[in-house]
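Late entry, written up from scratch paper. The run itself happened at the end of the previous shift, but nothing got recorded in the book at the time, so transcribing now.
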Amino acid sequence: MSGLLLAPFVGVHASAQGATQPDSVVARSGEHSSSARRPGSWRFDPDAGAVYSKGDFKWIVWGFAERYWGPRSEQVGADAWRRVRQGMEFDLPRLNGVFRPAVVYEVDLTNNNFFRSGRSSQVFENLYLAIQNPDDATRFRALFGENTHILSREDNLSSGNLPTINRSLILEEHGSVNSFGTQWGAQVFKALSSRTSIAFSAQDNRGSLNTSRPSYHVGNSIAVKVNRLLVRDTLARRQMTIGASADYTRAIYDRRFTLSSAVGGEAIGATTATGNKFTVEGDAAYAWFIGSHPLSVEGEYLFSDFSRSLTDVSGGYVMLQGSLFDAKRWGDLDPFARYDVVRLSREIARGRAIQQAFRTGVNYNLPRSRKHVNLHIEYAFNHVEGPVGIVPMRRSFGEFRVEMRISAVRYLRH
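Output as recorded:
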């Protein structure tokens, strides 16, 4: 849920921490409310990274690396770096008591010859100028530039989520039609109250800075998202949040919506998806305790319609996650169980393809790592069937993958 809405209740459970709050909106947001430090000093903030403070100026530096191990797939090898990223935020002195300008960037050093390519825009995953609340960016932030779409559940900037856990399969598959993910444009986030927040974006899905053919026509993709904290019972240690969003994207050409396996990203079906796309999405998360063990259940539903190809896709996921233990000596271990389903149809295909993924595993912050080193182990059983025009053949198969993440920002689930 929204970083703003979870912040007062982070002691209960934050497994959905990056799932519905766009990372774009609150990059390093935990840092803005920190008390003033002596001028010209460096310090390490486990929730932000390395922080340099001088007067009202702050310079925040972070980075992370993710590496896969497992059977070779179409998307990654048997042993491959998925991401190695480094980013910074420059919080400039406040203009008045209401606003502060900030500059944020994040670059990806993976498979792009970064150290030899020189000054190239294609290495930027995020690059934007923001005007925000001077003390807490979760209260208000307006930005312009390259940034993650507000419907995305991405693991860059401040969310800290791993690529498999808390990632929506149907949202990932929308990337095949250039929807969501990183885009160029404008975004505004506003906390309407301590329980309600709203985000709006006007961006361009046809090619961002990190593509070979960037496009800067702001407004090709219009989206809005609302988050609401329904329940916050500190005494009973439980919380419930909900979110709803919509996106309208114009002029999608020469694209095929591709079904991909849950862990390895193998293409298992596809059909043409063109025209204007309209998407609606809803999500919810509930967190509570059993004894001293925090648990959470979360889910999402999404529907998209493509006007020209007469294609529609719907589906979502539900996931249960809980903590077995959390101690400095033994680490922090969370097992999870998850079910994803995606339904894809096109009028001329005469039928509907159904993709299902049953997923389970553990997410483990290693002992004495202070939650900065994380091991993720996941098994997924995939099943897909449908008309031959979408799914070449009915398939059922399993996938297994191990991933390790090292990050300057600690990974918090509860």
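Helices lie at 3-6, 29-32, 114-117, 169-173.
(Scratch paper discarded after transcription.)
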